[in-house]
Task: structure prediction
Amino acid sequence: MRHARLPVDSGLLVSRTRRNGFAERAGLRQGTEPVQHGRSTFYIGGDIITAVNGIRTNNLADLYSALEDNRPGDIVRVEIIRAGRTHTLDVTLADREEVLAR
Result:
């Protein structure tokens, strides 16, 4: 968060979304500005996920915990920070293996 000068202390940065995927259709915005950190490139300027179904998401383990009782097709409530303001979106979950196989 500090490296990219993001407006929060914790959360999950939405670096990329799948074009016309569930996240994009629900309104999640991906980053637009590439940033190099070591060997990795990520994109800043996108939404920052701070909670899913009321569970704070400080890291990926928190995200997995928030989703563990859900299945593909379920709708989850996602709290995000966008341009310094809090928003809430309803996101339909995809089947991860199906999405990765494309």
